[in-house]
Specification:
Structural class: mainly alpha
Radius of gyration: 38 Å
Shape: elongated
Distance between the termini: 136 Å
Helix content: 40-55%
Largest sheet: 2 strands, antiparallel
Order of helices and strands: HHHHHEEHHHHHHH
Strand content: under 5%
Strand order of the largest sheet: 1-2
Number of strands: 2
Amino acid sequence: MTEHDPHSSPIKTPKQLIVVVVLAFVVPIVIIGLLSQLFTSTRHDTSGDEQRVLERIKPVGSVVIAEASGPKGNLTGEQVYAQVCKTCHEPAIAGAPKTGDKAAWSPRIAQGEKTLVAHAIAGFQGKAGVMPPKGGNTDLTDDEVHRAVVFLANQVGAGWKEPAPTAIASAAPAPSAQGGAGATSTPAMVSTAVSGAAPKSSATAPPAAATPAPASGSNAVTATTSTLTGDASATAGANATKSDGKAVYDKVCAVCHAAGIAGAPKFGDKAAWAPRIATGMNTLHASALKGKNAMPPKGGNLALPDPDVTAAVDYMVAAAK
């Protein structure tokens, strides 16, 4: 019997050596491949698809920042003054008694609070100027106009009391989206109305025009919406511009131009508009935007975008040709 040598190698021939070397490389590769296939062939979790991921990471809620505005009818006298009245009363345009000027306000205050408020709400033709109804801002409530009158009178020591709002008004109300000319959107003459002899919102200064504007139908509705939102691109199309012009005229300009108050050229009056039209549209636009004589800038409604003002001018010019 042959004795086995414990130190001898099991590899006896070159062929066996080659087989061992090959297996040493092949076996690990095969094992790795099988493991890889095992893991990669596992079914994906459907919760990982894009839609499910978006569902999982979407916010719990959203924050919407709205423009600050007080409930309609609850603007304080100071707010109405800042948004509407100061355009005429601060610089004393067209006979409007200047804010804080005791000499100018004393004879008016002497008439009594009730009389001043009535003049401010209904409008008043005085010796020194004209006060359009509610200063041209027909969206203001009677109480808001009353508060503005009291605020102005109290600047010279009248000591009157403002009607209490039904709710707390916002500290900085934004133009109302309703009616196209919210609290800040109509002529700033409301405070003028307070004085009883204040100027009109769009007096003699020929309004500026961008393009003639017929004003009816769905186009008018569309443009009116554009005006209400303060869209500065209201003149993007001919129809939109025309509709915007009528909407602005109806809400702002008509207060003075419909009746020809304080020298404002009356709507459709060719004789009154002819010399103004002769100065050129650029001049008319500039007068309406920057103000001229008794015509306050933008008719007193500083919140109006320039394109809306020029569209209104153009609408009136078209009606006078």
